[in-house]
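= Paired protein data =
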Amino acid sequence: MIGLIKGLKTTLKAFFTRPVTVMYPYHKMEVAPRGQGLIRLRMKETGDKPVYKCVACGICAKNCPQHCITVEKKEDEKQPLVYSVNYSMCIFCRICIDSCPFGALEQTQEYEWVGETRDYFIRDKEALAMDEVFHEAGQVNDSEEEV
């Protein structure tokens, strides 16, 4: 009898609380600031046009537990010739970001990504490039000098 009363008490308590269901995709939950989303390559400004912050050292590819990152570079160049991430294999563990000594990778807040084929989830360096340009500490932008 006591077990029945405890069960009814739990049921009534749940009956009168607000539901936590989110009507996705009409309402979306806020992503935590440290949420783990897609990996992007940072860009830096060196002169007239932005370039990749990545120097194609390959440390991120060596440390990736899923081996989903491919990095290739030309001799005597400090820019990646080929940089691709296979998101169908990626487990979003951040090991590649933490192991990069140059801070060239960043994890974004993007978490919704749908594709029709497996090839859609393989992204090259042009698709991985960030829209924003990374500014080094102490570097002043030309537009900030005019103010």
In short: The chain is about 20% helix and 25% strand. The helical segments are 2-15, 59-63, 95-99, 125-128, 142-145. The beta strands are 39-46, 49-52, 69-73, 80-86, 105-107, 122-123, 129-134.
